[in-house]
């Protein structure tokens, strides 16, 4: 009688989520380090810099980990298509884009020079790398979304939260000219050009849409554990604080405080699809708390350059952005015929 061989256990589930959540955050950390170097004149005309070495080493760790897991699972009896969960196949494809974007970036630098400051965000090769990176680091978020069950505690949710933080931080990195931490809109000199004020109002609205988009999407799937909002808002601000010549410690502190206030608000309102009024109020109040805290506390400590009309209207508009987005994410029920 032939005894069937038992296959070894696949590498998947929470262990893989933890590994890729941490590696994804390391990947984005390398991106932020390279951005700091570009913004502070620490690069020359060479592609081969210490900052690129860190970034591409983090990329290699992510790629080799996923490719290694696929090979091990294949050796343990899985078909190629099942050697990785679908969420991580998407991440591997995203990492594969770096094999095109990396050499492309080297060629681009050789032909046109090294980008500096604002322009570095939008070269075609950098945007291709950004797309691949976003697909890569969002793997744990997609994997946990597709899995049955809903982890409750912060520790159990942490791989998803780290993945969300990495993906959100990638978005804010490439739109950093609109982020309030490196650009403290409305604070500082009393008299500012109209174009600066217009840019500041639109930037606050845009940032509020990005933040609430990330939060509301996550809230559709999970009841978030205490501390999740502080972690997401605070650590993102911590990274963004390095993108200018002078570290924005005061702004980072205000964002951490806003994250704590958001956690408290979430616990008190208990917003959900079953409590739409509470959810709408939460979506309105979170950006209002954040922008309001910046204008009030930042205005007292640094001075406020905008009139009370402009500052107050901007705070209100950030709340409207969150409220409108909540209607898209959690639309009202359609009456049955």
Primary descriptors:
single chain; 337 residues; mainly alpha; 0% strand; disordered N terminus; 12 helices
Task: Summarize the structure in words.
By secondary structure, this protein is an all-alpha fold. Helix content is 69%, strand content 0%.
SSE layout:
Layout: H1 13-39, H2 50-75, H3 86-96, H4 98-112, H5 124-137, H6 139-146, H7 154-174, H8 194-221, H9 228-240, H10 249-269, H11 276-302, H12 308-329
What's this model, at a glance?
The protein is mainly α.
- The number of helical runs is 12
**Low-confidence sequence ranges:** 1-5
Strand content: under 5%
Helix content: 55-70%
N- to C-terminal separation? 63 Å
Number of strands: 0
Structural class: mainly alpha
Q: What is the oligomer described by this structure?
A: single chain
Query: Which H/E pattern describes the elements?
Result: HHHHHHHHHHHH
Shape: globular
Average pLDDT number: 89
Biggest sheet architecture: none
> Radius of gyration over alpha carbons?
22 Å
């Amino acid at each position: 009688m032939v005894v069937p061989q038992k296959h070894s256990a696949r590498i998947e589930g929470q262990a893989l989520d933890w590994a890729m959540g941490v590696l994804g955050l390391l990947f984005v950390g390398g991106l932020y380090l390279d951005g700091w170097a570009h913004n502070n004149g620490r690069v020359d005309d060479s592609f081969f810099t210490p900052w690129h070495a860190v970034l591409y080493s983090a990329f290699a760790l992510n790629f080799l980990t996923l490719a290694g897991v696929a090979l091990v699972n294949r050796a343990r009896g899985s078909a190629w298509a099942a050697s990785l969960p679908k969420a991580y196949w998407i991440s591997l494809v995203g990492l594969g884009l770096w094999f095109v974007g990396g050499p492309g970036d080297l060629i681009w630098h050789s032909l046109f020079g090294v980008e500096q400051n604002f322009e570095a965000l939008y070269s075609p090769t950098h945007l291709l790398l950004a797309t691949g990176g976003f697909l890569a680091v969002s793997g744990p978020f997609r994997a946990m979304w597709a899995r049955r069950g809903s982890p409750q505690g912060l520790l159990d949710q942490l791989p998803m939260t780290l993945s969300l933080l990495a993906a959100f931080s990638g978005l804010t990195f490439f739109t950093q000219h609109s982020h309030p931490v490196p650009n403290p809109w409305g604070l500082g000199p009393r008299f500012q050009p109209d174009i600066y004020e217009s840019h500041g109002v639109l930037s606050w609205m845009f940032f509020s849409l990005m933040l609430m988009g990330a939060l509301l999407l996550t809230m559709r799937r999970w009841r978030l554990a205490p501390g999740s909002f502080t972690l997401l808002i605070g650590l993102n601000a911590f990274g963004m604080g390095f993108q200018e010549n002078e570290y924005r410690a005061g702004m980072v502190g205000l964002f951490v405080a806003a994250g704590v206030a958001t956690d408290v608000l979430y616990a008190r309102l208990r917003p959900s699809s079953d409590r739409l009024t509470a959810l709408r109020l939460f979506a309105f109040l979170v950006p209002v708390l954040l922008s309001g805290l910046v204008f009030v506390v930042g205005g007292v400590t640094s001075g406020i350059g905008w009139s009370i009309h402009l500052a107050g209207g901007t705070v209100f508009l950030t709340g409207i952005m969150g409220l409108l987005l909540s209607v898209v994410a959690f639309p009202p029920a359609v009456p049955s015929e």
